[in-house]
Amino acid sequence: MNHEPGKLRTSLVARMLTPGGVIAIGIVLWAGVVALCSWIVYQSYSDAIQLAEQSSRNLLLAIERDLERTFNSYNLSLQAVINGAQKSTIMSLPENLRNAILFDNSAKARYFDGIVLLDAQGTVVADSSAAEAQASVDASSRSAYLVHKEDPRLDFWMGPPRRSRQVPDVTEITISRRVSAHDGSFAGVVIGTINVDYFRSLLEGLDFKRLGSAAIVMTDGSLLARAPYNQAIVGRNFRLNPIFQKLLRKQSSPFWGTNSVDSVTRLHVFRRIKDLPIIVDIAPAESDILADWKGRSILICVLGLLFSLVVLPTSFLFSRELRQRRASEMELHRQAHLDPLTGLDNRGTFDRSLQKACALSSRTDSPVSLLFFDLDKFKTYNDTYGHQAGDDVLKKTTMAARNVLQRSTDHFARYGGEEFVAILEATDDMQAFAVAELVRVSIENLGIEHPGSPAGVVTVSIGVACVRGSGATPEIIIGMADEALYDAKAAGRNCVRRFSGANRTIKA
C-alpha cells in the first residue's frame, strides 16, 4: 500500500501550521483578496466602458437608420423632379399643373423646405415654394449649380448650413442633384433645402446624463446639431477642433477626448454615414460613465481593507501563539530529554539511544562502543570549592568532550553526578580507545586547578567497551564499560582502559 500521498499531505500540513507558514498563508490570502478585488474593480471598469460604448452604438444605429431613411426620401423627391424635367409632356403643361406633378413628393417630406429646378444656364425653371413662375430669376451663382456644372461626375452634393433666404431665423442645408439630357449632357440642377431642425430632432429626447454630449457634423467641419442644444454654434465650422480632427483621421471608434471648452473628458463613439458627408458623434462623459463604478469600487476596496485588517493581524497573532507554543513544547522536550545543567542527553534519552544502537548492531553485525567517563576526585573538588564551582567544571569538561564527539551518530549523555557516557556507533574498541584518549587529553588540557587530584588539575578516567552482533545488549555493554572504568581508576585515574574481561564476568 502506497502511503506517499498521505505522508506528503501530512508534511504540507505540518509546514503550514508553523509560525512562518501561518504568516505565509495570511499573506497569500491577503494577496489573493487584493488580486480578486483588483480584478473585480478592473472588470467593473471595463464593463462600464463597454456598456457606455454599446449604448452609444445603439444610439448611433438608430440615428443612422433615420438619416438614411430620411435622405432616401429627400433623394426620391429630387429624382422625381429630375424624371419630370426629362419629359417634355410634363414640362409643356401649364405651370400650376406642371409644378403639382414635379413637386408632388416633396410636399409630403417633413423638414424639406423647398425644391428649385434650374436649367443648364442656371435660370430657375420651377420652384416648389413660389406661387408664380420665376423664369427670370438667375441662380447661376449658387454653389449647388456651380459644383455640378464644373464636375460632370458629381451626381449628388450637400452644402454647408446657411441662413434661409425666405426665413432669416431658420438655418438650412442644401442638397442637389445633376439633371442630364438624353445625350448625357448637362441640362441643369435640382436643388432642395432641408431645415437643420431635422438634425436637432434626432438628438432631442436622448439621455446623455449630466455631462454627455452628441453632435451631427459635416465632414467639412460644419456643425448641424448638438445636444445639449446651443443655437449659437449651429452652422459654425469646427474643422480646426482637435476632436473633429480625430473624427476625420480615425477609421474606428471609440476614443477618449477632452473638450477644450469645458475640459470634460468624454468617450467619443462615432460613425460616418454611408453616401453622406455626415459624421454622428455620441460622447458620454467619463465622470457619468464611471459614477456607479466608483461607488462599487469604493465599497469593494473598503471590504478588501477590512479583510486585510482582519487577516494580516490575525495571522501574525496566530503565528505568535504558535511560536510561543512551539517554544513551550521545545522547553518541555528539552526538560524531558536533556540534562538541564550541561545540555547533554539525560539518562532516559541515553537509554533509548543505546537500545537503538544495540538493535542496529544486532541487525547489521556492526560494532558499537560505549565510553564511560568519571571525573577524578570530583567530590573532593566540590567539598573544596563548592557546588557552584563544581557545576561550572561539569559544563567546561562536557564542552571539551563534546568538541571531540562531533559525529552525527555520536550520542553524549550525562549518566548521573560526575559520570557521563558516549555511544559511538560503527566504532570498534581500538577506534573508541583513540577517541576516549582525545577526550581525556582535552579535559586535562583545560588546566582547571584541583589540589585533590593526583595531576593537580581536573582529570577524567574513562572505560571503553565494544560489542557487536547478537551480543550487543544495553545491559552487557554498560557492565563492560563500567568494568573498564573500574580498571582505569584502579590504575591511578586520568587514564583510559578497555574492557578485557580478565578479572570479572559480565552477565546480562
What is the terminal separation in angstroms? 40 Å
What integer value in Å does the Rg equal?
A: 54 Å
Mean pLDDT: 86
Largest sheet: 6 strands, antiparallel
Gross morphology: rod-shaped
Number of strands: 16
Q: Beta-sheet strand percentage?
A: 15-25%
The secondary-structure element order is HHHHEEHEEEEHEEHEEEHHHEHHEEHEHE
Give the helix level as a range of percent.
Answer: 40-55%
Total helical elements: 14
- List the uncertain runs: 503-508
Q: What would your notes on this structure say?
A:
It is a single chain. This protein has 508 residues and is α+β, with helices and mostly antiparallel strands. It contains 14 helices and 16 strands. The protein has helices spanning 4-16, 19-85, 88-91, 95-102, 143-150, 197-203, 242-249, 286-289, 291-337, 347-364, 378-385, 387-404, 429-444, 474-490, and strands at residues 112-119, 124-127, 156-158, 162-163, 171-180, 186-195, 213-218, 223-227, 255-258, 265-272, 278-283, 367-375, 410-416, 419-425, 460-468, 496-498. The longest helix is centred in the first third of the chain and has 67 residues, at 19-85.
Topology:
Blueprint: H1 4-16, H2 19-85, H3 88-91, H4 95-102, E1 112-119, E2 124-127, H5 143-150, E3 156-158, E4 162-163, E5 171-180, E6 186-195, H6 197-203, E7 213-218, E8 223-227, H7 242-249, E9 255-258, E10 265-272, E11 278-283, H8 286-289, H9 291-337, H10 347-364, E12 367-375, H11 378-385, H12 387-404, E13 410-416, E14 419-425, H13 429-444, E15 460-468, H14 474-490, E16 496-498
Parallel strand pairs: 15-16
Antiparallel strand pairs: 1-2, 1-6, 3-5, 4-5, 5-6, 7-8, 7-11, 9-10, 10-11, 12-14, 12-15, 13-14
Helix pairs in contact: 2-9, 11-12, 12-13
